[in-house]
Batch of 2 targets.
Target 1
Amino acid sequence: MNCLCYLPDDGPVFDRVGIPEWPPVNPPTFTRHEGYKLIRGYLKRKSNKSDTETKWAIRWMEVEPPDAERADVMLAVYKTDLKEKRLNAVSLRNIASVSLNDDDPHSFVVVVGASVYTLLARDETDARKWVAILNDDVQLARDDKAGPPDADLDQNCLLS
């Protein structure tokens, strides 16, 4: 399978399902599940490695409802929208904050424990939509009295 993980020049990729392009043609979409807005779409994730030049990886991200394996609503990360293999996920209850990035109106920051993740949307409108929906969903997850977050997940690791 062809898959693009890094795109240092931010040029276009391909316009086919399963092969990400940047910027995405479509805005993020969402469905509703028990009060949650399950947002999904392509974002770029900034590498946290300080020993190299700044690299961005295109990732499919989506808020997923609970299932048979876990009781929490999760922010999940995949390489593509085909969702062949989940790279990682974090319980919404473990997200400390989601905010717009002051340095770039197209980007926003997700804080999980001691880790800070910078994500890039296709434009400022999309970034604002991700931040608003994620903040609403995080608050809803915190208000949920279902108990502690799933213990078997790496709670401080969101984005691979």
Target 2
Amino acid sequence: MCSKRVAVDAMRHLLGRLAFILDKELLNGQKVVVVRCEKICMWGGLVSQKMNLIRKMDAIHTFAREGELDNLLKCIESGVSVHLQDSEGRTPMHWAIDRGHLKIAEALLSRNADVNAKDNEGQTPLHYAVMCEREDIAKFLVKQNAEKDTKDNDGNSPVDLCDSDWPWLQHAGKAE
């Protein structure tokens, strides 16, 4: 029979091994799909140092980023909020726009995602569409009432950041 002390040591060992494996995978460029720890007591040392390497990203963000519509919809149906922000303040909408997934953006907006949500830098999905030069998505967002004049933390609006020749973006409410 295991004593409490042995169980605690075993848990520390297992968490340390998990952190080492994840660290090794991340450093070798391997893709970690979803890592989420609800309640883990970490007493310092190797485990906490290794776990700090993993950026908080929930499943819904991963599915939005990767364009996995079916899995994204399952998340939402199970009660996961479309407004959930990751450690950088990005919502699933930000990730969908960043990666060019129009169908994901449409699905999120049809489930009341905020078209004007701001990340930690004060940027909205329209900022992302403009910076990534995704004109079709930018037009879609404007048609969905995305605010073109919202300033980010550096004082730039999507219109300010637009290097492309998108005259429709300059005219309020006149998306083609």
